[in-house]
Amino acid sequence: QLQASGGGLVQAGGSLRLSCAASELTSSSYAMGWYRQVPGKERELVAAISSGRSTYYLDFVEGRFTIARDNAKNTVYLQMNSPKPEDTAVYYCAAAKTYSRLFTLAYDYWGQGTQVTVSS
């Protein structure tokens, strides 16, 4: 249902854009979120966007990352500007029937991750 892509190696201060292609079933009516996880740590919600385009950002990425959705393309993006080494993680996209479910990790669909490595 969800296919994340766009990860890779990027230098601190650079930019990277992640994409999450969703099927029509999980697209425009669903809230979408980007999570990340590093070994030994809990998964955390990095950014979320509701069907009405309300957005949420983790404090650490506020002002550097931007989440956006293109319903015509069934795709959600995470624009990562000025990434820091601490942003290194596997990034996952998820879809939930309601916005609030993203904050409790009660997502309905989950995609495979894409590795993002930020070098200093």
Write structural notes for this entry:
Helices cover 4% and strands 51% of the residues. The chain has 120 residues and is mostly beta strands. The strands form two sheets. Strands 2, 4, 5, 6, 9, 10 and 11 form a seven-stranded mixed beta sheet that branches. A four-stranded antiparallel beta sheet has the order 1-3-8-7, with no helix packed on it. The longest helix has 5 residues, at 99-103.
Proportion of helical residues: under 10%
Mean pLDDT: 94
Q: Span between N and C termini?
A: 34 Å
Oligomer: single chain
- DSSP strand (E) fraction? over 45%
Number of helices: 1
Principal-axis shape equals globular
Based on CA atoms alone, the radius of gyration comes out at 13 Å
List the uncertain runs: none
Q: Strand pairing plus helix content: what structural class?
A: mainly beta
How many E-type strands? Answer: 11
Element order: H for helix, E for strand: EEEEEEEEEHEE
**Major sheet details:** 7 strands, mixed
Question: Could you name the key traits of this structure?
Answer:
globular; mainly beta; 1 helix; 4-stranded antiparallel sheet; 7-stranded mixed sheet; about 120 residues; single chain
What is this entry, summarized?
This protein is mainly β and 120 residues long. The chain has 1 helix and 11 strands; from the N terminus they run E-E-E-E-E-E-E-E-E-H-E-E.
Write the layout of secondary structure elements.
Elements: E1 2-5, E2 8-11, E3 15-22, E4 31-37, E5 44-49, E6 55-57, E7 65-70, E8 75-81, E9 89-96, H1 99-103, E10 109-110, E11 114-119
Parallel strand pairs: 2-11
Antiparallel strand pairs: 1-3, 3-8, 4-5, 4-9, 5-6, 7-8, 9-10, 9-11
